[in-house]
Amino acid sequence: MTSPPSFSGQDLPLHPSGSSRAGEGDESRLSRRGFLTLAASLGAGFTASAYGADTPGPSDAVKTTANTTYRTPQISGVVQRCPDLGIPIPTGPPPGVTFSRVPVTDQFVAMTFDDGPHPQNTPRLLDMLRERNIRATFYVIGRNVDLYPAVARRVVAEGHEIGNHSYTHRSLTTLGDAAMHDEIKKTQDAVLRATGVLPRTLRPPYGAFRQNQRQAIYTELGLPTILWSVDPLDWKRPGPAIVSQRILAGVTPGAIVLSHDLHSQTVDAMPATLDALMLKGYKFLSVSQLIAMKGGDSTQTTTVAAPAEH
Q: I need a labelling partner for 6 at 20 to 30 A (CA). Which of 63, 71, 169, 252 fits?
């Protein structure tokens, strides 16, 4: 397994203005050197530690201005819609330490999106999900929530689940206990500030989390570790058609699908993917709803050979 790379300024969209140039996402990102130059020009509101240094940045990161260039795309033709399932949002900690899928008898699936919120890609994805009456789960990076709180608020306001994906996307297995807890706690705090709710589940960056770490976080914070059963390798950006093909080939009842709203190609793949899954009879739940369908059966995983870019 390729070991996860260290986090750098090239891993996330770093354009703080919310302009259409930042919306390119995959193509227009600042290098770390470029970010440091920008930080110097903007003053103390940004720090070198905020992107890529060993010490995480401040939780009260500079907020972005409104994205006035984004427009909701027009929907043409008939769009499939997921039926209203009437499944309540669970309360209390999910009953299990680790889940990569949930054994269910009906055709339920959980779509999950990592590494946001992104100022252009995430709103575009939310438009697609709203049009189809689909609920998904977003595993957010705390630092991005501090940068784009309005997008995080929209995720929650439209009925989606929001999960913890650490504050800086560092591999948690490389950190001491205090630093590991800080990554998770800062993200809990960032999400609560932005949305008024707390994440109920955790997805560790790269899927890297030792069993003793999982147990500790579940015991102390009530956060189960959520992995996945379908991985389209969309971080390699193979193109929307291949991302869609891989998801459709891998989904079975109870699947948890990994993908990234950080990448515009992944969002481009979603309309065809979601519509094809609905035509196959699949219905969409949040991760917590899916777990509740089984009432505690989980797939325990102690090691994961996760691709380096997750």
A: 63
